[in-house]
Amino acid sequence: MVERLAINAKVNLVYVETILKIIGIAYIVEFASQITKDAGQGSIASKIELAGKIIILAMAVPILTVLIEMVLQMIPS
User: Fold this and answer.
1) pLDDT at 36 > cutoff 80
2) From CA 6, how far away is CA 49, in angstroms rounded?
3) The model's pTM
4) Mean pLDDT of the chain
5) Residue 10: which region, alpha, beta or left (left: phi > 0; alpha: psi -120 to 50)?
């Protein structure tokens, strides 16, 4: 269903796949963080959250560059 919507919106499927992977990583990181907090390991939980944020940021760089390029194209020179 998501693939069909992306095709109809003429969005590159690579970006849709990346966004879905980012959402999956966010859920896994949140789940792991909550488990470690429940186990009384708050410092490990914060490190898991930091690692998840870094991974998400690294995966989002191509999408961010495309967005910045699109905004720059809209600005009259």
Assistant:
1) yes
2) 30
3) 0.80
4) 92
5) left
